[in-house]
Amino acid sequence: MSPSPPRLLSASWTFAVRAALRLRRVPEQAADAVLIPVIFTVLFTYIFGGAVAGSTRGYLQFLLPGTLVFSSLLITVYAGVGLCSDKTEGLLDRFRSMAIPRPALAVGLLIGEAGRCLLASTIVIGLGLALGFRPHGGAVGVVEAVALVVVFSVSLGWAWAALGLVLRTPASVSTISLILQFPLVFASNVFVDPSTMPSGLRQFVDANPVSLLATTVRHLMAGSASGGHVLLVLLSSGAITAIFAPLTVHLYSRG
Question: What's the pTM value of the predicted model, to 2 decimals?
Answer without folding.
Answer: 0.90
